[in-house]
Amino acid sequence: MQCHEVDYKIIGDDLQMVEIELDPGETIIAEAGAMNYMEDGIEFEAHMGDGSAANEGMLNKIFSAGKRMLSGESLFITHFTNRSASGKSHVTFAAPYPGKIVPIDMKKIRGELLCQKDAFLCAALGTRLDIAFNQRLGAGLFGGEGFILERLQGDGMAFLHAGGTVVERELHGETLRVDTGCLVAFTRGIKYDIQRAGNLKSMVFGGEGLFLATLHGYGRVWLQSLPFSRLADRVIAHAPRVGGSSKGEGSILGGISQIFEK
Predict the structure, then answer these.
(1) Whole-model pTM?
(2) Per-residue pLDDT tens for 158-197?
(3) How many CB atoms are closer than 10 A to CB 191?
(4) Across residues 138-163, what is the average pLDDT?
(5) Phi, psi (rounded to 5 degrees) for 55
(6) What domains can you pick out in the chain, each with its CATH number?
(7) Phi, psi of 72 (to 5 degrees)
(8) Tell me, what's the pLDDT at 97?
């Protein structure tokens, strides 16, 4: 199925939204809960499938939804359609944590993209969403994404979300070693594997984790500076204890006072 041709505009700097312009009859699919606001004429409906197959049966829809559950995503995908007969309408999406929105023209990357399971935000109708099982045992056990990555296929616009600053790299046979949480997506032609982060002392005391993702081949790679897991760890580490006080947090006096509170 050929994807719908949608226009878009990125709004904001660090807490970005993407505004999608839909002609009458055009549809955008999105993760559940990603919508911010929509204009008159836009109607939405939750579906088990992504709508990429015109005659997809109920069994295939249930199977597709089951695979999405394995990746930790929502059971349903929301379809937003411009039902207005008078002209264009807009709908806007954003991710639930700070970062950048990455617009990707799937036609320019040979129609296929692998991304971490929580990176997908929305895409033009006709984009196929699937999961990809990593064939390497090491990558499955120790990679930040486990065995499962999300595969996008199509020829329209797709939008990913990444934490912090986004860096796009073009590999021409080089090898890139990346923190497993900092990997957002990569195109076909890139081989993904997991390797040890140096010797035993470096793995234990280096602070960079036990394993690094190794990317090698020919294609494009998108990286993020602030994975949500890293942000969540810092927030939890500095959150006040139950029944405790957060006064003076981060200061020497605050640390001393917490010792005497025990």
Answers:
(1) 0.79
(2) 999 999 899 999 999 999 988 888 899 999 999 988 776 6
(3) 14
(4) 76
(5) -115, 45
(6) 7-234 (3.60.160.10)
(7) 85, 10
(8) 82
